[in-house]
Structures are given as C-alpha cells and as structure tokens.
Specification:
The complex is a heterodimer of chains A (121) and B (108). By secondary structure, chain A is mainly beta. Chain A is 0% helix and 52% strand. Classes of the chains: A mainly beta (121), B mainly beta (108).
C-alpha cells in the first residue's frame, strides 16, 4: 500500500525557514522510476507546484520560488525534505507531497493528506 | 512556463446532467503530459485522468478526457452527487509542472 505523509511545523514566523518532511511507504525512493514533488495550496486557492526530485537525485524547482527552495531525499529513511527560506504570510498554505511514477506520463498518482502551515508573528 | 487556463470558473449543474470542463494551455502540451484531478473539501487531490484520456485506477467510466495541443476537456457524462467538487488540470513540460486555477462544479 502506497502512502505519503507530510510532517513539519504548524506555525512559523515571518523570515524563518520552513522544513517539511514527506515520509513514504509502499515504494522505494531508490526505484529508478519514482519521483516525489511538493505542491502547495493557499486557503481557498489553486494548487501550486513547488519542487520535484527523482531517484537519481535530479531536481527541478518552480521558477518563481527557486531561490528559496531546496529539495532533498534520504533514501534509507524513505523521506523527502523541502526547505523554504524567508517565509512570509503569503506562504500560508497546505503543503502536499505527491508521487510521480516515471512512465510515459507525468502525473501524480498518490498524494499525502497535506499539512497546513501558517506564517504569522 | 506554460500557463493553464480553466473554464468556466464555476459550473452549476444538476445530478444526471453532463459536465464539460475546459483546460487551455498557453502553448502546446504533449497529450502524454496532461492530467486531471478532483479535489473535495478538506481532501487531497485525486488523480482522475492521465495522458489526457486514460482513466486512473478505480475511476468510473462516466469520467473521460480528450483533447490535444492547447485544448483539453474533461467530461462527466452523468453527474452523481459525489462528483460535485473542484477539478484541476495539470501539465508537465521542460522539467516544470503547472496546474490550472480550477473549476468548481456545484449543485444547481
């Protein structure tokens, strides 16, 4: 059974750095076909893709947020970590991690439940 | 970066009716890289359609996807009460993913 679960702080202060962890089960991050993305959703708004990491450690980032994001993985712990620097109240959102299987398609077949992060002093 | 524009923003229909949702891309998208998701309040998105027209595992056949190039469509042939939700299209291109702004399907 494939599952993903996000964890991290519920509340961060402006200018702080956010660190989120996605713990996966039911598949291996070392599998050549597996990748994980982080996607966020401000309250009442649309989904926004943030970053992606492949099994070979290749990474890609949203153009608009690239300077603030770092994605990494620890295969032995089955975890994907996202850090976002210089947090602002507009970064308040539910943050999801999602799996993508590298086939001829690029869609997210499994998602975590999401974790709501509020940025406020 | 490719921008996806979904229309309409809100669609009001009754159970049993047919729903047609549109997703237009600012430049051509490979059909293999176009997907649709359903999201209900308080839940994570669920993959409905991948490769523009293939249903994901467990998705009822009343959901269908079509289109190519810059114009894609999600059709729900006969709306069931559980289909009222927000729908998003998503594309992949040049190592970037983007989502549309969503269409809210509400009960009339």
């Amino acid at each position: 059974q494939v599952t993903l679960k996000e964890s991290g702080p519920v509340l961060v202060k402006p200018t702080e750095t956010l660190t989120l962890t996605c713990t996966v089960s039911g598949f291996s991050l070392s599998n050549a076909r597996m990748g994980v993305s982080w996607i966020r959703q401000p309250p009442g708004k649309a989904l926004e893709w943030l970053a992606h990491i492949f099994s070979n450690d290749e990474k890609s980032y949203s153009t608009s947020l690239k300077s603030r994001l770092t994605i990494s993985k620890d295969t032995s712990k089955s975890q994907v970590v996202l850090t976002m620097t210089n947090m602002d109240p507009v970064d308040t959102a539910t943050y999801y991690c999602a799996r993508m299987v590298l086939t001829g398609y690029r869609s997210f077949d499994y998602w975590g439940q999401g974790t709501l992060v509020t940025v406020s002093s | 970066e490719i921008v996806l524009t979904q229309s309409p923003g809100t669609l009001s229909l009754s159970p049993g009716e047919r729903a047609t949702l549109s997703c237009r891309a600012s430049q051509s998208v490979s059909s293999s890289y176009l997907a649709w998701y359903q999201q209900k309040p308080g839940q994570a998105p669920r993959l409905l359609i991948y490769g523009a027209s293939s249903r994901a595992t467990g998705i009822p056949d009343r959901f269908s996807g079509s289109g190519s190039g810059t114009d894609f469509t999600l059709t729900i042939s006969r709306l069931e009460p559980e289909d009222f939700a927000v729908y998003y299209c998503q594309q992949y291109g040049s190592s970037f993913y983007t989502f549309g702004q969503g269409t809210k399907l509400e009960i009339k």
